[in-house]
Amino acid sequence: MLNVKNFIYKLILFMSLFLALCTICYGQEKNAAIGHNSNTPNVVIIFKDCPDHISTGKLTSGVMSTTPPRVVEYVDAMRRLHSFFPRMSGYDTLIVPTYNGFAEIMHRNQVREDNYYMLKAGDTVLFTYGRNLRPIIKSLCSSYNTWLYNLPEEDARAMDKKTGYNISTLCYDNDINFVWKRRHNIKENHIPNIDSLRIVLKSYQKDYNAKLDSLVSSGRITHWYADYLKKHDTLTAITHGNLITLRRYSKPIIASDSLMHYTFAHHLAQKAYFPMDEKGFTAISQDSTISIYARISILKRSMTDLSTNQYGWHHYPKELVDKCNKIYIKLSGDKEFILEIDTVKPTYSGKYTIDLTLLNVGGKKTSLSDVLNKYKGKFIYLDIWASWCGPCVGGMPAALKLRKEYKGKNIAFVYLDSGDNIPETWRRAIQKYKISEEGGDNYLITNLDNSKFAKEIEYSKIPRMLIFDKTGKIINLDAPRPGTPELKKILDSLLK
């Protein structure tokens, strides 16, 4: 019986692959159906047993996920960015239109790394996954194409063996470095030495560029493809620089309508104008210095963040949501994507297990229970944050202003860092963002992943604010942020 089951399973997998390959025959009809030039062939992409690439399950027991979730992204013939989620079991197929003989796709690797591939028109490629879950690409039509797509990683120095990530990702991306610095069951020898990797990266890039020039001279690759690979590596570094630098370098790219056929141009646009507030939303919709396709992409990303409540947008009034909808529809003509903002708040269940263990600024162990006892008789406004969280630190000037306004009144302001494994990093952030000034009381959470309290309050995103009454009981599980009129109303009503 077991052998029969195995045979049936293998037969199903074989038929799935056969049907996927058959889609090549229908590529031109598919192009015509989506409004593309029927004389330009598509690219067929097959995925086999695609693992979870939207959480840090591979790295830690605690899970950090990305919003909006995405595994594969591509651009359609109308220059609109789309996401695709391959099946985690068996085969799945995606057909992508091409532009000027190529289609660029992005395949995410374990939340933080975005790998870009420039695929040849008419090709059929297969993605499988190695022991470290990293995507492995192979052309089913040409061994040359397989070599071409893997060229950036042909040099052993391009990859970090301990993690399975590109060293460019490791050296440029502060967020992914944070993941490896956490304590979540990660053995010390699995944490890369970022400083030493930067030296390796520099030598690799120098040799890599020289190699590309040599391949162009010998006629093995075109000048255009080599130029793409070189520029892409440079732009990857730029995207992890400061916002002013990113906008300056990305402006010529996202100003071009034709370049918006490429996935990376959309990502540049979204990163350069993110996050978006109300004024920025209106301004970007009217910014004629960049492509209309870039503007639509930026606004849709912002709309997605609004709808998923990724950055606490549910505290914004309904009027703003309606305004954003109208601006987006007017610019894009996309009436199907209507923002329905997520206003679901955690359910209050009455009692909570106050089991958070903490470290104070002086390095002494304490607990949330001790903090609640310390401020018994006062209301407590609790802010859960992290130094690597942009929205968290972006709200600290407003938090400082709030503490000044309510100084001397019957309310305490407590800040719990939930994401910095290294105490010194946390202390530097406290000083940098002036979080201890005007009465800010700071602690570092040391048992977040094992805490029942975190599960009971449905902790999943930061910043997260709670309000406790004078007895230490939670009276607001998801309080408004500093600087909002809603918070001032709540605090004033409590202090009457």
List the helices and strands and how they pair.
Elements (H helix, E strand, L loop, with lengths): L1 H21 L4 H7 L9 E6 L23 E4 L5 E4 L6 E6 L5 E8 L3 E8 L3 E6 L5 E5 L3 H7 L9 E2 L4 E2 H6 L1 H8 L12 H24 L5 H16 L4 H12 L8 H10 L5 H8 L6 H17 L9 H15 L24 E4 L4 E3 H7 L4 E7 L4 H5 L1 H10 L5 E7 L5 H10 L7 E6 L6 H5 L7 E5 L5 E3 L8 H10 L2
Parallel strand pairs: 1-7, 13-14, 14-15
Antiparallel strand pairs: 1-4, 2-3, 2-5, 5-6, 7-8, 9-10, 11-12, 11-15, 13-16, 16-17
Helix pairs in contact: 8-9, 9-11, 10-12, 11-12
Overall description:
This protein has 18 helices and 17 strands. Residues 7-38 and 182-189 have low confidence and may be disordered. A 7-stranded mixed beta sheet has the order 12-11-15-14-13-16-17. It has a 4-stranded mixed beta sheet with strand order 4-1-7-8. Among the domains are: 1-149, no CATH class; 357-494, Glutaredoxin, CATH 3.40.30.10. It is globular. With 496 residues, it is an alpha+beta fold. A hairpin with a 4-residue loop joins strand 11 (357-360) and strand 12.
Please tell me the overall pLDDT. 81
Largest sheet: 7 strands, mixed
Helix content: 25-40%
Q: For the CA atoms, what is the radius of gyration? A: 25 Å
Strand content: 15-25%
List its traits.
four-stranded mixed β-sheet, 496 residues, seven-stranded mixed β-sheet, globular, alpha+beta, Glutaredoxin
Offer a concise description of the structure.
With 496 residues, the chain is of the alpha+beta class. It has 18 helices and 17 strands.
